[in-house]
Design brief:
Strand content of chain A: 5-15%
Order of helices and strands of chain B: HHHHH
Distance between the termini of chain B: 65 Å
Number of strands of chain A: 10
Structural class of chain B: mainly alpha
Radius of gyration of chain B: 25 Å
Number of strands of chain B: 0
Largest sheet of chain A: 5 strands, mixed
Helix content of chain B: over 70%
Structural class of chain A: alpha+beta
Number of helices of chain A: 12
Shape of chain B: flat
Oligomer: heterodimer
Helix content of chain A: 40-55%
Strand content of chain B: under 5%
Strand order of the largest sheet of chain A: 2-1-10-5-6
Shape of chain A: elongated
Number of helices of chain B: 5
């Protein structure tokens, strides 16, 4: 079948002289790829940390159906660093957004290779091209779905969580392979051209500064006059990343920067964002009226009214709420320590806590906390925020607040807490 | 020598098969009935690559060619004028690409329903102002550069 492919490329992008940019070459691609690799390492690591932070190994926390064989990987997400999830997820989203220009530039630098001729040289080459489809398609998929999710835009029919998680597997397996295969090329480019020298050489704008034509599709055989230098290209990529950083990062960093995040969904003028309002969750004023009781289930089942909870010892801590969508906000929460509630229900210290909400629908109306999370002195069933009763949208009559826990696991409108063995 | 080539060739093939096997496992997990079971997922992965490589990239390349042909630059000019349009246009378009759902107000009802507030302060307006500012900065830099160039020419 391979014999059916004509030897000479047809007119168009498969002709080497179709490409004319004097910038393309192994050094430029290596340099962009190295920067991209650093960013992708941060994004991938924080992404998997977020998966871990949801403690999918206990209770019904697993939102992605578990495969069982990876359970040994799970360690309890610590409570010692309340800012931990705000930092890891803020990095995941903010660096993710800011990396888009770099990804586009990297893809631009290698586009002639897509049209290399012959398109398939043999069975191994066909496999290589398949892994490149996994790399490019998987990479674009990860960025596109993540960016859409942050903006609550769902043009697709599959579950975002499942697809984004397994999309990472596809992308990262192809990425590890790609870096392994290209390592000799990258090292040769840096050895022959220097790591930063081509950027410095740019200043003289000499045709001699072009990368040598190695007969592959990267270097243009008949380059046109330089209209932008390698420095210029990297400058525009950097400026675009900076623009994304400024318009996005504030929703995570907070303070004066939040006002700068004019395009970010939870930036701009709001200091204490709501993830899901009571009306969107189906929680009405009637459900949270004076007849509301907190049901504690354990060795000694108890029901407590809001007045009874307020009569228990209260604790106040400043703790961040950090959302998977990359925004966070630190507030002063006041309420009853979860470990006092566990003691009231006759629970042991090694028990997990299943928290259920009044919210009638939705997979996140419940969350399971680890024994370490229940036992931390800063873990609260919050009744007040910043000295006032919780607003309904923030979980009145009572919500969970645990240091370092992903936002949605800090269940709002709590109805019941069940203490049990894992 | 030939033995080594064969061994590295075998390693090369094994590594590719391993990556494909991991991807196949991941796809099987997504398509399993316990998940969403939607082939749509695969379509999106392939379509993303095709849209970028065959639509987005050719489109911006074509726009760049048109821009360069419109602005007749002297080929030996130290700072080609086209870059004073290229840089702000690229930054603005990247912002648009990333924030398109917000800028074009997709699903505004859903947004307000879950977040309890309307879309952030007129995202389209914010993006337009950012774009205006970017082009203004580029014009300023170009103007200062032109003045300096003229002064240098006069000094000579």
């Amino acid at each position: 079948m391979l014999k059916l492919i004509p030897k000479d490329p047809p007119p168009g992008p498969s002709q080497r002289d179709f490409w004319y940019s004097p910038l393309r070459g192994p050094w430029l691609t290596s340099f962009l790829g190295s920067l991209l690799l650093v960013a992708l390492t941060i994004i991938a690591a924080t992404g998997f940390l977020s998966h871990l932070a949801y403690a999918p190994d206990i209770g019904q926390n697993a939102l992605i159906p578990r495969s069982g064989s990876f359970d040994w990987l799970f360690v309890d997400w610590p409570t010692g660093f309340p800012w931990l999830y705000a930092v890891t997820q803020g990095l995941h989203v903010t660096i993710g957004f800011a990396t888009v220009p770099l990804l586009l530039a990297k893809l631009w630098s290698v586009i002639p290779r897509l049209f290399e001729w012959p398109p398939v040289r043999g069975p191994v080459h066909a496999l290589e091209r398949l892994t490149l489809l996994m790399l490019v398609g998987g990479g674009i998929f990860q960025f596109a779905t993540g960016i859409a999710n942050v903006q609550l835009y769902y043009p697709f029919h599959f579950s975002f969580l499942v697809a984004h998680y397994y999309g990472a597997w596809i992308f990262l397996s192809a990425l590890v392979l790609h870096v392994g295969v290209k390592l000799p090329t990258i090292r040769r480019a840096y050895r022959e051209r220097g790591v930063l020298k081509p950027l410095i050489d740019d200043l003289t704008r000499d045709r001699d500064n072009m990368e040598p034509d190695a007969g592959n599709y990267l270097v243009a055989p008949v380059p046109e006059h330089t209209t932008i230098t390698r420095r210029g290209l990297l400058g525009v990529v950097g400026a675009s990343s900076a623009a994304l950083l400024v318009t996005t990062g504030g929703q995570s960093v907070g303070g004066p920067f939040r006002r700068l995040a004019v395009l970010a969904p939870r930036g701009g003028d709001i200091n204490f964002p709501v993830n899901k309002t009571a009306s969107a969750a189906g929680v009405t004023r009637k459900l949270v009226g004076s007849h509301w009781r907190l049901a504690l289930k354990g060795a000694k089942p108890v029901e407590l009214s809001r007045e009874q909870l307020l009569a228990m010892p209260q604790a106040t801590y400043a703790l961040p709420i950090a959302c998977v969508e990359g925004w966070s906000s630190t507030q002063r929460w006041t309420g009853v320590r979860l470990r006092d509630l566990a003691a009231a229900a006759g629970a042991d210290e090694d028990m997990i806590a299943q928290v259920g909400s009044l919210q009638p629908r939705g997979v996140l109306r419940r969350a399971t906390l680890t024994p370490g999370q229940v036992g931390d002195e800063r873990s609260l069933l919050a009744l007040k925020v910043n000295g006032r009763d919780l607003p309904l949208d923030h979980g009145y009559p009572a919500r969970i607040i645990v240091p370092g826990l992903p936002g949605v696991h800090n269940t709002k409108w709590v109805a019941a807490i069940t203490f049990q063995r894992a | 020598m030939s033995g080594r080539v064969t061994r590295s060739g075998a390693l090369h093939l094994a590594a590719h098969l391993a990556a494909i096997a991991i991807a196949a496992f991941a796809v099987s997990r997504v398509l399993s009935p316990a998940s969403t079971g939607d082939v749509n997922f695969l379509v999106w992965i392939v379509a993303g690559a095709l849209l970028h490589d065959l639509v987005l990239l050719p489109m911006y390349s074509l726009a760049d060619i048109v821009m360069r042909l419109t602005i007749a630059d002297h080929p030996m000019r130290r700072r080609p004028a086209v870059n004073y349009l290229r840089a702000p246009a690229l930054i603005s378009l990247v912002l648009m690409l990333v924030y398109a759902p917000t800028i074009f107000n997709r699903n505004p009802g859903n947004f307000e329903r879950v977040s309890g507030r309307p879309q952030p302060t007129h995202p389209l307006e914010a993006w337009l102002w950012i774009t205006v500012a970017l082009f203004a900065i580029a014009a300023l830099v170009a103007g200062v550069g032109a003045l300096r160039g003229r002064r240098r020419a006069v000094d000579r």
